[in-house]
Amino acid sequence: MKKSFSSALLTGALLTSLLASPASAQPSKDDDGRATPELLTDEKLSWSRGASDWVHLMWTTDGELANVEVRVVDASNGVSIEYPSAAEWSRLGVDTTLSTSEIDFTAIKITTSTPGTKHLVVEISWDDVSGERQTSEHKLQLTNKKYKGDDCAILTEEASIGMNVDAPEANWVDLDYKGIAPTNSAMEMRVSSDLPVYHPQESFTSLHHDQILHGGEADVARIWFDPELVTEGTYEV
């Protein structure tokens, strides 16, 4: 069904669950008394087919770990990995050091393309207090499920614009969206119309807050019309 100044195309990816940090996880030392990192993030993740999103792996320790790096050293078929800033590993969010009882995170971007249960092996490496390089591995399980249902709802049925040449800022149209799926990522809206439409990102417009729309969240996308190129009337887009 067409709407006045409101219909848009959507591309997105769905993430069906967020990470949990089990309260029972406690930092510990290895048999030689050296500090080792503990992964606080739940090792079983539920994903949607085609999902692509950044995951924060939470870490703590009982000691001093320097030059911390995290990378995926093994992954099931159909899983691809990216790291921040196109690097080959992920560092901690605050700095490169994890101190006693400190909690910090490393970010990795996980994309899945086929259904089924997947596995990742995450390696964390660090320098201990003697300067010796240490490593440990942690296995994560991804249960890849297909989300069924509407992704989001557009709340804007109609919009009015003044087409005021002297006040061009008044010619922005707000498209209000509400998330229904657990997460819609990489949101891009495009207006299909014979009207000359300006998209802030040239060929599309993003949401105002960011490109992610969570279930129950409301956000707005904006488009602009040149008042000198649009004649008075009612249009469907």
Describe this structure as you would to a colleague.
With 237 residues, the chain is an all-beta fold. 0% of the residues lie in helices and 45% in strands. It is built from no helices and 16 strands. The protein has strands spanning 9-14, 28-29, 35-39, 44-48, 52-61, 66-75, 79-82, 104-112, 116-127, 133-145, 152-154, 172-179, 183-190, 197-198, 213-214, 218-225. The chain has a five-stranded antiparallel β-sheet, with no helix packed on it. The protein has a four-stranded mixed β-sheet with strand order 4-10-9-6, with no helix packed on it. The radius of gyration is 23 Å and the shape is elongated. Residues 1-28 have low confidence and may be disordered.
Relevant terms:
mainly beta, five-stranded antiparallel beta sheet, disordered N terminus
Question: What structural category arises from helix and sheet content?
Answer: mainly beta
List low-pLDDT spans. Answer: 1-28
Computed over alpha carbons, the radius of gyration is 23 Å
Give the SSE order as H and E letters.
EEEEEEEEEEEEEEEE
- Major beta sheet, specifics? 5 strands, antiparallel
Helix content bin: under 10%
DSSP summary: helix tally: 0
Overall shape: elongated
Instruction: Average the pLDDT over all residues and give the rounded result.
Output: 77
> Beta fraction of the residues?
over 45%
State the separation between the terminal residues, measured CA to CA: 10 Å
Query: In order across it, which strands form the biggest sheet?
Result: 2-3-5-8-7
